[in-house]
Amino acid sequence: MKRLILICIGLAAIGAIAFGGFYLFQRQITTYIFDRGVARTLGQDPTANLSDGLHVYLCGVGSPLPSESAGPCIGIVAGQKAFVFDAGSGSIRNLMRMGFPMEKLQSAYLTHLHSDHIDGLGELLLQAWVSGGRSVPLPVLGPPGTKSVVNGFVAAYQVDRGLRIAHHGETVVNPAGHGATPVEIALQGGSNQKALTVYEKEGVRITAILVDHAPVEPAYGFRVDYKGRSISISGDTIYSPSFVEGSKGVDVMLHEALDPEMVAKMAAALEARGQSRTAKVFRDIPSYHASPEDAARAASEAGAKELVYYHMIPPLTARVLHALWLGNSRDKFTGPITIGEDGMLISLPADGREVHYSRAFR
Ligand SMILES: [Zn+2]
Ligand SMILES: [Zn+2]
Question: Bridge partners of 254?
Fold first, then answer.
């Protein structure tokens, strides 16, 4: 008993000394921790250790519904070139946290012009200009209407442009590199043309694919090919035969999805509480999104090797909801299925077969 008391007194004394030491040297200790963090992250090239290949940055897997996930966004690094597909709210901050190489950014692509896919575009243009050190505006490609959207964002950032040039100087923020050049991709539902190569350089090919997000027309998915590896991005769509066709044999299909039963329950709950206006929105949205099973069917018919879900509705706030949301998807697609998360990096080494998943947040 006496020994136990002595041990307790000893432990309490050690604790008091440790606490007192921390309190006394708090500034030195926290300065050391901060300096270590700065040295480890700032100015480092986070792509230095990336193998040659296709790398997919999940910068936003969310939807317009509030959640911890940013709005839809996928960054791609293919060899020495980088691209961004959609720029949902909060996603560009995620992209920067993931160490995305803005200085390698060649162009950005909009799947369609719904607000949740463009509301981070201003931030993308700012980061492309300042972090990316651009000397020419960023090409932004998308469906008809892209010109007015992009020009609107550029106009909204004109005051900021002047403020930053005045403060940092033209050698730091090149006035000629500010903003964006919109390019409208012409793929209309009425024609037979369902896919169009929109970028081809140094082994990287990007193809726009017509998808079905009616009444939003046209809406596009995209496919990226590089050194024998390929991925496709659905954008917003129901099950789309042209997306299946355009995604033939891809290593990874990234597909949006909405669980109609879960959303129907949410609509009913809103209705019951007298929020019929919001309930109506919830009842409308399943008509232009794929269910998780639809996406699994698309992946299977395309012969995709892996399926990754993004832009998930409703937000999957706990892992326990994954099985409910997936429903029978695993019966429809027998390959690996991954529920995407913000910060996930998917790497496909050139000319290989493997697909590596990691977390890239720093
Ligand atoms: Zn949409
Ligand atoms: Zn959307």
Answer: 233, 308
Ligand nearest to the CA of 60: 2
Distance, CA 94 to ligand 2 centroid (Å)?
A: 18
Distance CA 323, CA 14 (A): 48
Q: Strands across the sheet with 138-142, in order?
A: 180-184, 138-142, 105-109, 81-85, 73-78, 53-60, 344-349, 356-359
Task: Copy the structure tokens of residue 48.
Answer: 């230095």
Determine the distance separating the centroid of ligand 1 and the alpha carbon of 128, expressed in angstroms: 24
Ion ligand 2: residues, Cβ under 5 Å: 116, 236
Catalytic choice (116, 225, 294, 342):
116
- The Cα 174–Cα 169 span in angstroms is 8
Whether residue 236 lies in the annotated active site: no
Per domain, the residue ranges of the chain are 2-39, 49-112+188-359
For the chain (length 362 residues), average pLDDT per consecutive 10? 72 74 85 85 79 97 94 97 98 96 97 98 98 97 98 98 97 97 85 89 97 96 98 98 98 98 95 95 95 98 98 94 97 98 98 95 88
Q: Which residues have C-beta within 8 Å of that of residue 172, sequence separation ≥ 6?
A: none
Distance 297 CA to ligand 1 centre (A): 20
pTM, full prediction: 0.92
CATH of domain 49-112+188-359: 3.60.15.10
Residues 208 and 111: beta-carbon distance below 8 Å = no
> In the structure encoding, which two tokens stand for residue 293, read together?
């099973």
* Ligand of minimum distance to the alpha carbon of 256: 2
Backbone conformation region of residue 210, classed left if phi is above 0, alpha if psi is from -120 to 50, else beta: beta
How far, in Å, is the centroid of ligand 1 from the Cα of 213?
A: 7
Residue 235 CA to ligand 2 centre (angstroms): 7
The ligand minimizing its distance to the Cα of 284 is: 1
* Residue 38: Cβ within 10 Å count: 10
Q: For residue 220, report the distance from its CA to the centre of ligand 2, in Å.
A: 12
DSSP code for 82: E
